[in-house]
Amino acid sequence: MYTQAMDLAPKEERKAVRTVEEAELEARFEARIDAGDFIEAKDWMPEHYRRTLVRQISQHAHSEIVGMLPEGNWVTRAPTLKRKAILLAKIQDEGGHGLYLYAAAETLGTSRDQMVDALHAGKAKYSSIFNYPTLNWADIGTIGWLVDGAAIMNQVPLTRCSYAPYARAMVRICREESFHQRQGFDSLLVMMKEGTDAQRALVQDAVNRWWWPSLMMFGPPDAESPNSAQSTRWGIKRLSNDTLRQKFVDACAEQAQVLGVTLPDPDLKWNAERGHWDFGPIDWAEFWRVVGGHGPCNKERLAARVKAWDDGAWVREAALAHARKQAAKEQAA
Ligand code: BYC
After folding, report:
1. pLDDT digits (tens, 9 = 90+) for 29-76
2. Are 24 and 18 in contact (CB under 8 A)?
3. Helix or strand (DSSP H, E) at 111
4. How far is ligand 1, taken at its centre, from the CA of residue 59, in Å?
5. Which residues contact 73 (CB under 8 A, 6 or more apart)?
6. Does the pTM exceed 0.90?
7. How far apart are CA 175 and CA 199, in angstroms?
8. 220 CB within 6 A, ligand 1
9. 148 lines ligand 1 (CB under 6 A)
10. Cα of 332 from ligand 1 centre, angstroms
């Protein structure tokens, strides 16, 4: 299976027989997890727990950084100064989220350079959603409403993740994400309630294109999610992919009515018995195609990241040269 797990397992982990000391450490770790304790960076943890976290946090960090690209496409074409300032602030926030997350992953012993190398080599994943194009201005509001909305739904439970540095990063990120979601909804509401027919049509077109990919953000169905059982056992995941997806559909179905847009799903209907909105089948073949590198913008997104990294080489070199000079001055003084 296509996986982004980094090959970081030390040889000891592959040993079939554990030492008594290792078995005791593991039992103590499991007991702490069962008691709802948070694990800190310097605490002992099984290698698989460490790798699972690096896998998830690095893909999350890359998602934030790659997620800046579809929005960046519209900075120069935002319709008003107010919308431009909001968009710039949002994109800047996302850069910050990426940095908190790379820092959280670094506490697990994987350097940012290693993670970035894996992304640029096409080995590390980032969210499927960012491989779709932003074709009109309403895409920006729709990303805020649906994509940030899905992100918050998925990320609020991560503020209670068992690994404390990740949980702490998520508290700050979720505060900002909720502003992102609201500004998107507000932007669409203005277009729908005060705009022209042409503007309303732009919103509907954007919602039609982003709805299904947003549902895919929560990952494969629970029955086909290879990582879920262990991640749930360890308190990394608190709610399942399908549970979060359903919560998201329930919230959006009501919000769509307020906006006056139609969600592009003929099977969407309230099910009083379940107390939830039913929805139609998701095209998982499309999801795996995009995750496997064959979505509409995968090549473009990766190329943009690699170019930004290469173009920024002189900045990193200059900063290091400056730091070396400062250190030499301090030593001489
Ligand atoms: N896209 O066993 P599963 C954001 C992969 S955006 C690509 O269920 P897990 C933002 C998965 O990695 C959101 N790949 O995995 C918003 C795994 O492959 P590997 C970023 C996906 O980890 C606006 C395989 O499929 N958020 O924040 O238990 C602007 C099997 O899946 C996707 C996060 O990353 C996908 N949609 O559950 C800017 C939240 N879904 O790793 C930025 C943190 C699944 O074995 N992450 N895969 O090679 C998570 O909560 C979990 O990792 C997931 C997946 C729910 C996404």
Report:
1. 999 999 999 999 999 999 999 999 999 999 999 999 999 999 999 999
2. no
3. none
4. 7
5. 134
6. yes
7. 30
8. yes
9. yes
10. 49
